[in-house]
Protein 1
Amino acid sequence: MVELGWQFRLSILVVLNLIATGLALVLLSRAYRSSQESLRDIKALAGHILSSVDQAVITTNRNGIVTSINRHGMELLGAKLDCIDKPVKELSADLALDQFLADWQAKKPSSLTRDFHIDADGRTVRATCQSLNDVEGKQIGKVLQLRDVTERILLEERMRRMERYMGLGSLAVGLHHEIRNPLAALSLHVQLLEEQLEESQVSEEVQQMLAVIKAEMTRIGGVLEGFRDFASMENLRLEEVDLAKLIQRQVDLAVPQANQQGIDVRFVRPESPLPNITADLVRLEQALLNLFVNAMQAMPNGGELTIAVTATADSVRIEIADTGSGIPEDLRSQVFDAYFTTKSEGTGLGLALCDKIVRQHNGSLDFLSNKEGTTFVMTLPIQQAAIFAD
């Protein structure tokens, strides 16, 4: 009987132990499921946050293998989901991301920023690299952030141009006044000197020196007038302008010179009629012709000049493209600077004046350039609210 009693008690303890173990397993299972659900929620939340960020976010391991990429990153780089677990250099053929990560690894700063210029479409992508650490602070990879800053850089460049022009306006007025009067007096005295010398025999050498003086005075006068036109504060004389006829007229003016240089000129217009715009006809003709001449000068050995026009409800876009050798990258920031030129002849005011005229019309003038040529893009509003001064 005693032995049966002990067996009964032992059986009860075993049953109670099994029940307790079962309850513990149930509680542990619930806790595990709850933690899994919380982890999924955290991952989903992190994924939604990364997807909503307006920049590309890419993580890699220490060997440069992609471990994650957000939606904006795939859109920016044209990547696909199968890019995970592949080297970062395979994400883009235009961006040397592997070299960028290698430079960061060599220097190991807190962060590293670099701009990549994509010649194919003129975009600028700004890359930033930081270390990816675990909870103990040990580096387990890298975080790469990419942002398209093309519009920001264009805006900064336009602001920089405007700041330069503001100072040139007052400078032009002073220079024109201080130089024009002495130049006029000098021209008058040279003319009087010529009249006196006509009455006596002078050597050919003296005549050549006088010719040089007159030529240089004429050149100074031309430069002065160009500077005055560039920095002029005059208002626009707005009128309704037939855009198609305006462009065709400038194309006709450019064709003879283009034929002499072996350049084919194409005027590409949309099927629907181009709208009339409100503009200063004379200044707009001047800007377009300057751009055409500049494009032809970029093709001394022949090529193709293409003028393409598109229109929206409120603006028109005129693209002037050449097939020259392009603008060197180290000179692109100076293209619209006054008196900057790479040519042996000219004042360097052509493109600066074009930019000013377009800005006076509340438009914009930008360009894209690579080794296959340069495209200047002029954007103009169809309607002007009022007559605008510079």
Protein 2
Amino acid sequence: MGAAQHPADRAGTDWPARLHVVTGKGGTGKTSVAAALALGLAADGRRTLLVEVEGRQGIAQLFGTEPLPYAERHLADAPGDGKVYALAVDAEEALLEYLDMFYKLGAAGRALRKLGAIDFATTIAPGLRDVLLTGKVKEATTRTVDKRRVYDAVVLDAPPTGRIGRFLNVTTETARLAKVGPIKTQSEGVSALLRSPMTAVHVVALLEEMPVQETIDAISELTSLGFGMGRVIINGARPPLPSGRLVTEAELARGLRAAGLPADQRIVSGLHDEARDQAIRRELEDSLRADLVELGVPLVELPLLPDGVDRAGLDVLSRALLGGD
């Protein structure tokens, strides 16, 4: 029998997963999207955990806090008395925790760290590093106290699209190679969670050629590996331009004069060139958006934030993600 659910658990059916993996090409704003999603899912009294695994301390930078330790810390409040916690998973610390949990090597594990063995193990075997990282995420997702989930949702700021398939699939490969023992058991458990309905992988994209192509490639790879897709999240989307033909220079000049503004040829030509470039750019964006629609994955668009992403901006993104105003 599964653990009892919090009364506010699984708000709505639009985001039903418990573990949300957020990936995207570098520079698309995946950390901001992951943070906004964690805030939205924490609304109305829920608890979410926002996790990073790349050692960049991107979450701390985004929220303007001290670097995150390898411990779950309260990060922010959400509307309706919700709570967002954060965790930066460190591979060395995760390995020490693993050695203590399965082999009771608490003090001995720390001694190995002093000798450099822990760093050696996680460096020489990068697959082991990813097993430890995903294992910690799985533990946080499934943890219970008094038969109740500690977190209503976990949001993982995951590696970028170029590495996401290998990162998520490493436990499957490890389970296949390890014949017996705790490593095989843990790897099988993580692999099962990542491929279950409890997990959804969301891909963040910009309406630019390279991010869109990497999104298409990532979804193809993840689908072939058996991972469940959540949404394609278009970040920094701009409102559509008014439909119709491009105005002429003569029309621009008349409009400027009517508004009491300078209308010399240099200004008019510059504005006309800018309008033409914008129209060409929007046509390309429309074409790229159509390519993403063809993937058959639900699409959500987040507005461009001219002033950058601060806490107020995260709240705007959060409402856009969760369908609020």
Protein 3
Amino acid sequence: MRADRLISIILLLQNFEKMTTAELAKELEVTERTIHRDMEALSAAGIPVLAERGKFGGWRLLEKYRTNLTGLKADEIETLLLSPSFQHLADLGISDDWKEARQKLLAAIPAPLKEDVKDISNRIHIDTSTWRESPREMKSFGILQQAVWEEKKLQIQYEKADKQTIERIVEPLGLVAKGNTWYLIAASDEKIKSYRVSRIVKSELINENFSRPKDFNLPDYWQESKQKFISSLPRFEVEVEISPSIIQRINFTGRFVQVIHMDIPKENGWIPASLCFDTEQEAREYVLGFGDQIMILRPVSLRKSVREMAEGVVGLYKENEVDQ
């Protein structure tokens, strides 16, 4: 509804002080022409919206203007009460603060809405951990948080994937939790990179401030970085037929294989499917692990290598039987 959108524009400008037409259009999922019409409507209604021209221009409210349109609807309150990841809150050291803030929010809810929203944590629970947690070492996490908030430079020792350790001075811009893994987003030599926190062997605050890039947006950077990483991943596609007895296991092991599509079962019950792996080696080991329950159709080279690998396993056990 347009009325809701106009209120949203006012609240956005109060919170962010200045936003461009493009930013407002993206946030509210409308066209830039719609934003211009909305601004005309707000101005006509007496809301002091100002347009600043130039490279760093945008829309803003007249200084010190504040609206009282802050009443929350029941649905909006429910979104604030949704339980975040307790592991992430604990990592950040704010789990107790979150619990206190939640109690204060519950206490401030008008009586008619309390019954509708107070039980949401008992209906929806969010758990970002994996089934089998690996021990996580984040010795430097507290220092990283301090550096991000205080905009202080950091000297870090970082262990790369090949186990080599490098030293680098970085400008920490933010922290991102991907699943239960934390990443430090930092600038170095005018390049912004992601560093896995568990690989930061040592970190030390440098008593030198830095200026954050004015156009840097952490969620946008992470989304773009993630898409680049995904598009750079190798792909090895395999056409197979799968025994119906292992379909559930195939669907459950999504961490190791991507099921591109499955066709309807054939007369014998077996299911044609397309699977995708990172490498041929992964495909070979995965398929062989299911024994005679997966039959490779294509590529032919994989059929040959799996057969050779299976023959090698049989030969190994025959040799052991002879030795015994």
Protein 4
Amino acid sequence: MIKKDNILISKFIGNTPLRRCDALSTRYHTNIFIKEEFHNPGMSAKDRPALFMIKDAIAKNKIKPGGIFVEASSGNTGLGITLIAKKLGYCAKIFVSQSCSQEKIDLLTKAGAYIEICENSNGLHDFNSTQFRAQSFASDHPNAYFTNQYYNSQNIRAHYKTTGPEIWEQTEGNITHFIAGIGTGGTISGTGRFLKEQHSKIKVWGVEPRGSILSHFLQHRTLPDQTVAFDQIEGIGRNFIPGSFDAAYIDHIFQVDYQETKHIANEYYTQTGFTAGFSSAAVLASLERYRDRIPLTKTDIVVLFFPDHGSRYMSKLYNERVHHPSPLQTSDHFNF
């Protein structure tokens, strides 16, 4: 039964649409396409690494039937793990930080996850972090497995094997730029590696919040002497270097702040009627802030990575005037 369900789940994850955005293409005088990851069953790109990490753990007998998959997550990976684990006969316990949106917590609860809210997500060195608490729980409980997306090679592999090839095929090999927010680093590292293996001149650009340290690391290959609290753009930004972040395939990382991200999200909604997710809006903010420094031509093919949907951030990101229901009904995506 598990093998049959595994095949069924794999069929529904990935192969998401790539849509040309006329509004953005006109605004920036180029060809801009959006990789719409919210068409996955859990409505996010994190379904991809969740599937790969779970399949790898089961195949290597790291967990027995009926066990508990454990993850530290801003919500999306946790939801993907919860949905897949439940389908395969496992449980899930997800450690989220107190900055996690209420919408995501509600979705995790609805999906059947056991949730624990932690002070921060500052990495394994911080006793109050989601990562440390998740690792401790898995160590203290029999038949519990910490998928550990920040250091699990399957995170990168999922995007190298699926996201990259999809984009390459959907653009017929004509992509010139790939832009994505960076959280764990798995998306941009795996996708970037695949794309650059196809054509080394493809530009791979990351986006992070102001105060995050990944752009400093990319430029200097060292940690900054001092760290500051980075802007709370949910899902991206780090004050440590995740093991799933591979700087070798990234050309540049842009920084944006919370206010400009919120502003561009609402502006984009006004113009298109689409509510972008938090890190998707950050990608839009990077285009706007650095438009004079980004040399785009009329023939370029620019792919923006939209990992999830704005329905998960209505209370945190959008102005109160946005009251309409989400164009995607999450409940419709809960069944594989």
